[in-house]
Amino acid sequence: MLSLKVPTVSKVIQSGKALLACPYFASRGAIALSQIVLLPYQVLLQKATREAWGVNLKDNIVIIDEAHNLLQTIANCHSVELSLPAITIALSLIRF
To answer: Rounded to an integer, what distance in angstroms lies between the CA atom of residue 85 and that of residue 92?
Structure first.
């Protein structure tokens, strides 16, 4: 499924079906062999996700498109929303 040309999504799916292989995991496996990789912010910003995807930033150039969205994405990656009932239950569990 590796190619010197960038395949379309439909071509990757077609190749996966022909080879009885998962195109998603084949594409992820190709990251280590690629010179240019396009990633969602979440993959770039979270170390565990980068490692799971096989993305190594060392000695590489990172270009961030739509950088005006970066701060909000960072905040979302490192935030959690808790409902009042969840907080109330948590407090009752630690107070007993």
So the answer is: 11
What percent of the chain clears pLDDT 70, i.e. is strictly above it? 95
Query: Using an 8 Å Cβ cutoff, are 77 and 45 in contact?
Result: yes
75 exposed, middle or buried (CB, 10 Å; 0-12, 13-18, 19+)?
exposed
Report the C-alpha gap between 72 and 79 in whole angstroms. Answer: 10
- One-letter amino acid identity for 30? A
Q: Is 59 left (phi over 0), alpha (psi -120 to 50) or beta?
A: left
Calculate mean pLDDT across residues 66-80: 88
The pTM of this model reads 0.57
Q: How far apart are CA 49 and CA 76, in angstroms?
A: 15
pLDDT, residue 39, reads 87
